[in-house]
Structures are given as C-alpha cells and as structure tokens.
Design a protein that fits this description.
The chain is 16% helix and 32% strand. The protein is built from six helices and 18 strands.
C-alpha cells in the first residue's frame, strides 16, 4: 500500500488556548483523536511549540506557533487523472473526475485535485471547489492578480455556472427557479451539515428540464449563488432529489436515520459550463466539459450524443 509523504500542520494559537494544557487543547481542537493518542504523538516528538518539541503538560499561550508533523499515511483510493480544458498564462481549467476530492480533508492529501494540479503547476490556486463525487470544471488562477480579479467576479456573482443533473420525479414545468435558504443543521456524526433551513443564507438555482424519463428527468441547473451542496439541497427541497443521492431527501434535509455523509457517492452531477471575464483582457471566456464516459448512458439528452451544449 502506497503511503503519502506526510504533512506538517501549522497553527498560531489564539486566546482560547491561554493557560490550557497542550494535550487537552489538542484533544478538544482536533476531536478525531483522543487525548491518549495526542499524548503518544507528543511523546514521539511530533508536536512542536515555537519550533521545539513539546511536552504533554506544556501550558499554552496565545501567539505560540504549533506544528504537528503527521507521519506518512495511506490515503483512501481515488481517481487521480484530470484533463486540461483551457490554459494560458493566467488561468488553468481542468476536468475533475468524480471521486477525486478538490481539496485536502477527510484523510485525503495527495489524492486530491489540488495536489495533482500543483505537481503540474505549483502556482495554481483553485477559485472554487466541487464535491468529491461531482465531476467537471474546476478553474485555477495561475498568479495573484488573476486570483484577485476572479475572486471579485465570484463575490459579485458575475460568473456563469451550468451543471447537469439527473433528478427524480416529474416537474410540472420545463423551467423553474428554486429559492431556498441553505445553512448548517445539527448532525449526529459531523456536528453540523448544510441543508435547507430558514435561518440559512439565501440561494437561488434556475432549473431547465432537458429530457423526461420514467420517474426521473435530465436537467441543467444554473447557479447565481454558490452555497455548499446547493444543487443537491435545492432539487431535494423542490421535491426532486438527485437520483441515487444517499444523503438529501425530499425537503432538502438529510434522510431520516441515514448515516450517509456529504462525500458519499451515488448521484450524478456534472459541472458542464463556466463563463468568466478574462482577468487580464476582460474578454469573455467560456469553458465547457463533456460528462465522463462512464456515465454517458445516463447523461445523453435530446440535444445529441453528448450532454454539453
């Protein structure tokens, strides 16, 4: 089993750490490990405070530099190849395969799109992310000025995003908006999870039905906003959960008694088109991405042999 190269996690301690024992703070701050496990790591010299190996009884104060030198570990398997869709001196757009996380987390570090893209171009920084099992376009900036300008476009909601989805049920009309607030909801396994809640942030999705099938329909979804898991939550809130979604049910809430997590597979969702103003020239840039071959039988539409327009 191949191991990655390990990773150094850095933190600057805030006021909440003042006067606390190191092992207690670590166990509460990083609850994925027990106090006993953190004690073993500290004893092995894997935790540093201000560049020196720490002791379990060390008392913390704000401003201290903490480093945890995590040894190499075997990451979960994931597809690690990607296709380049667009590239110039400012931008890099790639096609992420379903199953590959965009960013590190949940045990993933090198089996991520970010790491794989940076092997090719260490300067690249992602401007957005896709869920692990969503395929399609991810756009990277290749320099600081491009990142600043594209980030502004995202914050001003001037970026056009079109997704393709296979949803359940039979909508009454061929196009309809979904305006449902999205925010955190208590979750027994994760503490909280994003869902359709009245106290959340406003969000809008515009749905266009492409093809009706027995019990399901193929659609394009345009996103003026970009909340976490927005398409999955919105279509479920409208009574049309994504076919095979193990987490979100009708109403845009986690399914009752489900132990599914946001990163679990089963649904088909693809980022098919992205339009931005070029950060250097201001001219429009349109990037399109065909759906993955492995799912073409699900993605075919009345438009032709592929799902991209």
């Amino acid at each position: 089993m191949r191991l990655n190269h390990g990773h150094d996690y850095h933190a600057i301690l805030g006021a909440e750490a003042d006067g606390r024992r190191l092992v207690d703070w670590l166990a509460s701050r990083y609850a994925h490990s027990s106090a006993a496990e953190w004690s073993e790591r500290i004893g092995a010299g894997l935790v540093l405070l201000d560049d020196r190996p720490a002791g379990t009884e060390a008392l913390l104060r704000r401003g201290m530099r903490l480093v945890w030198r995590r040894p190499a570990w075997a990451e979960p398997e994931a597809p690690t190849t990607f296709a380049v869709l667009f590239e110039d001196e400012d931008l890099l757009a790639v096609a992420k395969p379903a199953g590959l996380p965009t960013l590190p987390g949940g045990g993933f570090l090198e089996n991520t799109l970010l790491h794989r893209v940076r092997v090719r171009d260490p300067r690249s920084a992602p401007l957005h992310r896709l869920g692990r099992h969503t395929s399609g376009i991810v756009l990277f900036a290749r320099n600081a000025s491009a990142h600043t300008e594209l980030s502004r476009q995202w914050s001003e909601r001037s970026v056009f995003k079109r997704y393709r989805a296979l949803a359940g049920g039979m909508p009454e009309t061929d196009s309809f908006p979904i305006c449902v607030s999205i925010g955190p909801l208590p979750h027994p396994l994760l503490g909280s999870i994003f869902a359709a809640v009245a106290t959340g942030k406003s969000a809008r999705s515009d749905v266009v039905v492409l093809e009706r099938r027995p019990g399901s329909f193929l659609c394009d979804v345009m996103l003026p906003t970009g909340r976490p898991h927005q398409i999955r939550i919105h279509l479920a809130a409208a009574g049309h959960p994504l076919v095979g979604d193990p987490l979100y049910g009708i109403g845009g809430l986690p399914l009752p008694d489900s132990r599914a997590l946001p990163g679990d597979p089963g649904y088909l969702l693809h980022a098919a088109e992205l339009r931005v103003a070029h950060p250097r020239t201001g001219l429009p840039v349109t990037i399109v991405c065909k759906p993955p071959n492995i799912a073409l039988e699900f993605w075919r539409s009345t438009e032709g042999t592929t799902a991209c327009r």
